[in-house]
Structures are given as C-alpha cells and as structure tokens.
Amino acid sequence: MPAAKTAFENLHRQLLINTKAAAKKQNAQDLKKRIALLSYQRINAIKERDVSKTSELTKKLEEVKKQTEDPQVEVDPKLLEGVKAAQQSGHSVEHINDIANYLSYQRTYNELIERYNPGLSMTQEDKIRKTAHRVGFELPDKE
C-alpha cells in the first residue's frame, strides 16, 4: 500500500509540473495576443484622432504589459480516481510509476532540446536577427 501511495503522489506531482508549464506558456501567448490587439486598437484610435480612446487604450496596454501572474493549476482529482481503483495489483503500481517517469523524462527532454537547439522555439524575427548578425548586419530596433 505505501508503494501505491508513493506512486500516486509522484504521478500527481509530475502532472502538476507539466500542467503548470503548459499553462504558463499558454498565458504568455494569450498575453502577447492581448498586447497586439490593444496596440492595433490604439493605432486605429490614433489614426481616427480620438484622444480619449487613445489615452484609455494606452492605460490598458500598460496594465496588460505589467501582468505576469503565475497560473494556479490543479490536477483534476477525477483523473486520478480511476487510477486509484486499479491499485490492487503490483503491476498497476508499476504502470503508474512508469507513467510518472515518462512525464518526467519527457519534460527533461523538452528542456534539453530548448537549451541546446534554441532555433526550434525562436520566433521568425529572432531567427532573422540572428542570421543577419551572423553575416555582419544589425537590424534596427522596433521602437
């Protein structure tokens, strides 16, 4: 029984780590989209010469840029209830340990891929900037 409890705790921990990483990445993408949308709306307000709307959108844009909250995530307990029902045999406990190990190894693999092959996660603009730098050119800053 203690082996089963340890296996479930390990699985729960790995699921939380993976879920939090995914939620963090998704929040960053959502934040980037919100910033782009507000910037677009602000540019349109400037073109229309609407001063009040421009100042309102500028304030909203500054507030959104300050948001860097960590997501609060939880693993659905119903997900683990089905697994707990099958904890009678030693084979299922071993299987649960294998699942937890797989999640851990997969996360480590992805971290190593990002660390040693950063081109996979780079944006197109970053790739262009690095390529230009490699041949001796410097791209102007956006701002």
UniProtKB/TrEMBL annotation:
<dbReference type="GO" id="GO:0033615">
    <property type="term" value="P:mitochondrial proton-transporting ATP synthase complex assembly"/>
</dbReference>
<dbReference type="Pfam" id="PF13233">
    <property type="entry name" value="Complex1_LYR_2"/>
</dbReference>
<dbReference type="InterPro" id="IPR039196">
    <property type="entry name" value="Fmc1"/>
</dbReference>
<dbReference type="GO" id="GO:0005759">
    <property type="term" value="C:mitochondrial matrix"/>
</dbReference>
<protein>
    <recommendedName>
        <fullName>ATP synthase assembly factor FMC1, mitochondrial</fullName>
    </recommendedName>
</protein>
